[in-house]
Design brief:
Elements lengths: L2 H10 L11 H7 L5 E5 L5 H9 L4 E5 L3 H10 L5 E4 L2 E2 L4 E10 L20 H4 L3 E12 L1 H7 L5 E6 L5 H6 L2 H5 L1 E7 L12 H6 L4 E6 L3 E6 H8 L3
Parallel strand pairs: 1-2, 1-7, 2-3, 4-6, 7-8
Antiparallel strand pairs: 5-6, 8-10, 9-10
Length: about 240
């Protein structure tokens, strides 16, 4: 969609964005009490907890492969509206080597588990030298397209993704799922933090059915073109 239509949408919905995206803005965007939300790369559930706080009637599906984060998630998140799927999300089904992050014991005595990825770290090692990658483990991996088909998941209101350099893997395994998704929010980097990580322009090219609603410093919020069409089409 062209930029004037996106700008008109933001104006109509009274959307204003600061330096970072706030979870409480999702409810404003969705205008729905019981949305379907995906938290891909959920870690210990920090974003999931905010989902619950702001949208208590939402059905929330969370995906996380790191056993350390999963243990924390199960302690911190206790809601019948949340389902945790203990897998990585990528372009294929099977198993994959997951590069666990560690370090920063001064922040977390158990070690920094927020930067693990199915892709090997690259410039990440120089930009954040206090984050270490000393252990690789095998984890199960699924394609969202196959998982949503098996679970008969219909339209999805919002996908929040933090997959640490594996953005292309997520998208390529979720092309059909994204066709019925209203909003997609993901981290990105133009500095190849992880080997083979795509940049912002390539990410946009992989999402021809979406428009950029807002570009943050290292995150991007996309809106489905169908969402824009529905908004401005006469009833």
């Amino acid at each position: 969609m062209n930029q004037p239509i996106v700008d008109a949408y933001k104006s109509l919905k009274k959307l204003q964005f600061g330096q970072s995206f706030e979870v409480n803005q999702i409810q404003q965007m969705l205008e729905k009490e019981d949305p379907i939300l995906f938290d891909v790369g959920a870690n210990c559930g920090q974003t999931t907890i905010e989902f619950i706080q702001h949208m208590p009637k939402a059905d929330i599906y969370c995906f996380e492969p790191d056993p350390r984060a999963i243990t924390k998630f199960k302690i911190l998140v206790n809601s019948p509206k949340v389902e945790l799927i203990e897998v990585a999300v990528g372009a294929e089904n099977g198993t994959i080597l997951f590069h666990q992050s560690s370090g920063a014991e001064h922040i977390d005595p158990q070690g920094w588990d927020h930067s693990g990825s199915i892709r090997k770290p690259k410039s990440h090692l120089e930009i954040w030298p206090w984050v270490r990658f000393e252990k690789d483990i095998l984890v199960p991996m699924i394609r969202l397209d196959d998982w949503t088909d098996q679970r008969a998941i219909g339209p999805i209101d919002f996908i929040w993704a933090d997959v640490q350099g594996a953005e292309s893997d997520l998208v390529m395994g979720a092309l059909k799922t994204l066709e019925r998704t209203r909003f997609f929010y993901t981290e990105f980097s133009d500095q190849e933090w992880y080997e083979g990580q795509i940049n912002f322009d390539t990410l946009c090219a992989l999402l021809p059915n979406f428009s950029v609603l807002h570009k943050f410093e290292n995150d991007a919020l996309f809106v489905a073109n169908q969402e824009l069409i529905r908004t401005f089409s006469p009833n």
